[in-house]
Amino acid sequence: MVDRGLMYREWMQNRTVLVMVGIFLAAVNPFEVLNTYLVYQGCLDTHGAYCKFYVNSLDSGMLNFNWAPAVILAVCLFGLERTKGTIDALFSLPYSRAQMFHTKFWLGAAVIAGFQVIGYGLAELLILLLKPERVYFFHHYSVGEIIVSILAFALVASAGCLTGNTFAQLLTAFTVSIAPYLIISLPLTNAEVIFGVGMHELMPSVNAYLNDSFQYLIPIMYVNTDWVSASKYILLIPAVMSIVFYAIGYFCYVRQPAERNGRFFLWRQLDRPVQIVVIMIGVLGFSLAGYSTGHTMTGYVVGMLVGGAIGFLVSYFVIYKKTKHV
């Protein structure tokens, strides 16, 4: 699956990013524990016995952004070569595309998960040495951040395998990360405006489901930390989504037409359906924006027309215009 020669090539080509990402992911967890202890020591100097030494992972500001290095790494491994136009040289090497994909993916996943495990162990060691009075959410949150960052990596990597440049990769990944909202919540909100009745009144059980369980089917929701206080089994959802995105990325990387590098989508057949979807989203989104200005159907219709025009223009120039290599 993973070839040593390809592994060496990817390391030499992306070693700066790999090292920087690894250092950040390994350092952030123990840094947060140490910073909490230093704040506690400063409090002792000022307020004395009134200070308490607690480690609460939900208060870890930097740990919440462990997904960001995963996004950067996915762009470097799966997007930049298409933008630079150097992927043809990679495809000319005596390796199969499956070997190339597995090498890139598992290298990135190993760096993301491995260095976070190192940071998790160092933070645990600091907790044992510093002996805080209470530790909240440390184990669950640390393990969860590994899964969430792998989800972010798999999502952006699969988008990079489907698209022909970095901009398309990031835009596609973001769209997919909020796709459940766009597919379900946006049309329902428009239905509320058109019929003048809230969905929570017509379908209270469905509305309760959307508010409670549905949010965890939206990948971008894991940027928030609400999943920590929910059931521990919630983490099975991003784990399964990571596997799905891995499978999509593998299929696209192996089957893609390389001659369309630089285009938004590597498959020409996706251009028109996606353009239609973008126009529909523009219509639904801008119609709500127009309605919110004066709560009139005139504003709703005007917003619909403006959204359709903007959706068409944006989709046309973004999807059908080939990006020049940098």
TrEMBL record:
<feature type="transmembrane region" description="Helical">
    <location>
        <begin position="297"/>
        <end position="319"/>
    </location>
</feature>
<dbReference type="InterPro" id="IPR053046">
    <property type="entry name" value="ABC-5_transporter"/>
</dbReference>
<feature type="transmembrane region" description="Helical">
    <location>
        <begin position="170"/>
        <end position="189"/>
    </location>
</feature>
<feature type="transmembrane region" description="Helical">
    <location>
        <begin position="62"/>
        <end position="80"/>
    </location>
</feature>
<feature type="transmembrane region" description="Helical">
    <location>
        <begin position="233"/>
        <end position="253"/>
    </location>
</feature>
<dbReference type="InterPro" id="IPR023264">
    <property type="entry name" value="ABC_transptr_acetoin_YtrC/YtrD"/>
</dbReference>
<keyword id="KW-0812">Transmembrane</keyword>
<feature type="transmembrane region" description="Helical">
    <location>
        <begin position="105"/>
        <end position="129"/>
    </location>
</feature>
<feature type="transmembrane region" description="Helical">
    <location>
        <begin position="141"/>
        <end position="163"/>
    </location>
</feature>
<keyword id="KW-0472">Membrane</keyword>
<feature type="transmembrane region" description="Helical">
    <location>
        <begin position="12"/>
        <end position="31"/>
    </location>
</feature>
<feature type="transmembrane region" description="Helical">
    <location>
        <begin position="274"/>
        <end position="291"/>
    </location>
</feature>
<protein>
    <submittedName>
        <fullName>ABC transporter permease</fullName>
    </submittedName>
</protein>
<keyword id="KW-1133">Transmembrane helix</keyword>
